[in-house]
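Translate structure to sequence.
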């Protein structure tokens, strides 16, 4: 029994600490999953913040439309455009990070599937943002 304890818990005599392979892989996967969840939470928080900001901007736009202040309206639309571009860049960065994660780490099938689904979701979000951006540009041009 003491031999097991010494083999599994105590550091070896040569000073190198060895984690058993299975435990190491599980630990790595757990850390990866935690990082992914943290990233997702951060992204959701950011999206919520941006949604609130967009709502505020739209309310301001409605108010300005009622007041017929065209210059301020254009300024706010340009601000909205900048905000959308920033979000687009952030999503692209996150997408690149996920793709890098996908390429560098050997993942089990379930985690791989989850990562691919997340990437697809991000791509969908990116396309929706691009559509919104194009609509905004068309509105600005008219």
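Result:
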């Amino acid at each position: 029994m003491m031999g097991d304890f010494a083999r599994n818990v105590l550091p070896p005599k040569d000073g190198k600490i060895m984690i058993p392979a299975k435990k190491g892989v599980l630990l790595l996967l757990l850390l990866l999953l935690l990082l992914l969840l943290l990233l997702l939470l951060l992204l959701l928080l950011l999206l919520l913040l941006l949604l609130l900001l967009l709502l505020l901007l739209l309310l301001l736009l409605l108010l300005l439309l009622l007041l017929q202040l065209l210059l301020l309206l254009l300024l706010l639309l340009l601000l909205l455009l900048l905000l959308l571009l920033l979000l687009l860049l952030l999503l692209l960065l996150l997408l690149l990070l996920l793709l890098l994660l996908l390429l560098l780490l050997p993942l089990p099938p379930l985690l791989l599937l989850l990562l691919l689904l997340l990437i697809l979701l991000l791509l969908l979000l990116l396309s929706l943002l691009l559509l919104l951006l194009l609509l905004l540009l068309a509105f600005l041009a008219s």
